Structure formats: C-alpha cells, structure tokens
C-alpha cells in the first residue's frame, strides 16, 4: 500500500477520463498501463534502496564523521556529497535539459547543472556548519531569503524563474534521503533538536541554488 498509494489516485483519474471523455486509442491506454506497472516496480526498488542504503549511510556519516575528522574537513566532505548527489539528481537533469532547449543553448545544460549543484553543495555545507556551531535556523533563513529578495528586482526575469525552479528540483528523490539522514546524524552528535536540524537542512539546501542563480542573474 505504501508503494501503490501515490500511484492509485492518478491511475483512477486517468481511467475515469479514458472511459468518459478522452477515449484514447487502445494502444495508448495499454502503454499507460505498462507505465503504471513500471512505476510501481521502480518505486519498490527505489524505496528499498533508500531504506537499505541511503538513509543508513547518510546517518552514519553524519554521526561518525564529526568525531573522526576536523570540522573543516567534514565540511569539505559534505560539500562534495552534496555536489555529486545533485549532479545525479534526475529532477535537476530534466530541468537542465529543458533550460538548454528553451534557451536554444545559450544556457547550456551542463553549465546549468554544475551551477545548481554548486549552490546546493555550498548551502548544505553551510547548514552543517550551522548545526555544529549552534546558529538558529530562523536567523539563517531570514538572512538568506532576505538577501535573495533584496537582489531579485535587479535580476533578469528569466533567472528569477530559473532560480526558484532549481531550488525546488534540487531537493528531489535522490538527495532528500541523504540530506535528511545527514542532518539527523549531525544533530545527534551536536545534541540539538533533530527535527529542526534534519528537516531544516533540506530547506536550507534548496535555498542555495536560488541564491547562486540570483547572483549570476545580476551580471547576465
């Protein structure tokens, strides 16, 4: 039920539309059925992988790394984890390809992907640093979004849209489990509220690409 739950409402709506309004050819509807089956299998494999590997290793890294390396080295490790996970994030790659097509190559998909990944990686490292030193989350969000709102009037409109779209896509199905687990692991070591630190880290990570693309939009 955990796997079928998200897919069932969509399937029922499509079936209802097929029977009453759309009435697509049998071949198209059959392909939809195969797609639903593939999604169910994919979700099962994905959730199994998350619970089996991503969550445990993320929490282990977050809880053991601070005690074994210097703080600056831990931040470097977190930065590169955020970078490679965002580069592999399917949602970000879809957005990067769309941007490349719409702008006819003026904003290349690889450059866009790298910039967005750097933004998330910097924000993730900054979020872990915040956990280690005990800076209040509300202060960080206030300053971060305050700076973004201050520079938005001077940013090219297309970059404003891209900035916020990128912020929502970076925290996708691949990166969120790692960020959550990493935040919870560091929170246990720091002895602070795990709920605030774990979930706040996801929100802060999504702010990074918004900020970086807004800065770039000032000069382009």
Q: Please, could you describe this protein's structure?
A:
With 220 residues, this protein is mainly α. It has one domain. Helix content is 85%, strand content 0%. The chain is built from nine helices and no strands. Helix 3 (71-87) runs antiparallel to helix 5 (109-133), helix 5 (109-133) crosses helix 9 and helix 7 packs antiparallel against helix 9. The mean pLDDT is 83.
Topology:
Layout: H1 4-20, H2 26-68, H3 71-87, H4 90-102, H5 109-133, H6 137-151, H7 157-170, H8 175-190, H9 194-219
Helix pairs in contact: 1-2, 2-8, 3-5, 4-5, 4-7, 5-8, 5-9, 6-9, 7-9, 8-9
Which terms summarize this structure?
single chain; mainly alpha; 0% strand; 220 residues
Q: What is the helix/strand order?
A: HHHHHHHHH
Shape: globular
Radius of gyration: 20 Å
Task: Report low-confidence residues grouped into runs of 5 or more.
Answer: none
Oligomer: single chain
Work out the count of structural domains.
1
Total number of helices: 9
Count of individual beta strands: 0
Concise overview:
This protein has helices at residues 4-20, 26-68, 71-87, 90-102, 109-133, 137-151, 157-170, 175-190, 194-219.
């Amino acid at each position: 039920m955990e796997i079928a739950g998200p897919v069932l409402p969509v399937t029922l709506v499509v079936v209802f539309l097929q029977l009453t309004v759309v009435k697509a050819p049998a071949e198209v509807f059959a392909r939809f059925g195969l797609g639903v089956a593939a999604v169910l299998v994919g979700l099962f494999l994905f959730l199994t992988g998350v619970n089996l590997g991503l969550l445990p290793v993320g929490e282990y890294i977050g809880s053991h790394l601070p005690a074994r390396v210097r703080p600056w080295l831990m931040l470097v490790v977190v930065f590169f984890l955020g970078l490679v996970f965002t580069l592999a994030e399917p949602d970000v790659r879809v957005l990067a390809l769309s941007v490349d097509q719409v702008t006819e190559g003026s904003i290349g998909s690889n450059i866009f992907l790298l910039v967005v990944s750097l933004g998330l990686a910097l924000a993730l490292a900054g979020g872990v640093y915040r956990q280690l030193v005990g800076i209040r989350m509300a202060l960080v969000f206030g300053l971060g979004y305050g700076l973004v709102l201050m520079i938005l009037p001077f940013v090219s409109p297309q970059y404003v849209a891209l900035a916020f779209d990128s912020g929502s896509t970076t925290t996708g199905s691949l990166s969120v489990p790692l960020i959550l687990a990493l935040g919870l692991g560091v929170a246990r070591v720091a002895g602070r509220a795990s709920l605030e630190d774990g979930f706040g880290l996801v929100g802060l990570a999504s702010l990074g690409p918004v900020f970086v693309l807004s800065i770039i939009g000032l000069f382009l």
